[in-house]
Amino acid sequence: PHKLAPGQLAGTAPLLTGATVPASKAWKVTSIILVNDTTSAVTATLHLVPSGGSADDTNILIKAKSIPVDGSCLIYEFREQVILDAGDAIYGLASVASQCTYHISYIELS
Question: Left, alpha or beta for 99 (phi > 0: left; psi -120 to 50: alpha)?
Answer without folding.
Answer: alpha
